[in-house]
Fold:
Amino acid sequence: MKRWNKNFLAIALIALMILHGSVTAFAFVNTSVNPNGAGEIVETSQGDNRVFTQTPNEGYEFVEWTYCYNDGPGMQDAQPTSDNPLIVPSQDGYIDYSITANYREVPQETTQQTDSSSSSSSDSTSTSSSEPASNPDPEPQPQPEPQPQQEEPSEPPAPPVTIVSTSAGSALPTAGLGNAAVSTKTISLNLYEMTPAQYVNFFVAAIDSTPAGGETIIDLNIASCLSTKMVQSIAAKNDVTVNIVYIENGVRKLIRIPAGADLSGLIDANGFIGFTSLANAFGVTELTE
Structure:
């Protein structure tokens, strides 16, 4: 009885410290660079805060930070910011989050060189005064061709992505899922190598290309979230089962959304559904090879 009382008091003390902000924790952090190799991210601490400092590599310049965080109800998208360093206060209670430093290529500057002889000839002509020129009809000097202006890319090119079709009874390309029960479309995405907009477009394309009564497998390398557009694509194909595979804390996990499921009630005030919310609603399975 005395030992139980001591354990109870210890648990109550820890809970009280968490409620008053004395204990904070970050359980899971993903940092990435977009496009891949454009810069470096260094994480440090500042009191109870986490500090992320980015440094662009040669040929790139920093644009902004984008990140999702989990505050309990599910993954949320924070407002993009160009602050550097990015300071994440632990007292906000974030459980896990994914931070991306976005860059763009710096346009290469071009310089035009003129021939020295034509330059000196031009100078001598411009400095002559009232005396008549010895050659009244000088030969025209060749003009340098105009150089085409380089346009700044608005978005990096999308990485190559393949959607695999699997007939019923055949082995699925995703390890741990066995054979397909029905006609299935599988798409594997590396979210470190694409923008959020590209992620949404590939997700919607996979759902749209799945035949009626089939299944879709979205195989991701990290935990993320669903936007309103992605939820709408699932609702439009209400006879398709959607399987989301992702890696969290080094463990591959599966969330299975049955055909016809209503996801509208899970959308937060910012228009997103985090994977934590999906797991709470539909359950999550750990996959083995």
The CA atoms of residues 204 and 252 lie 22 Å apart.
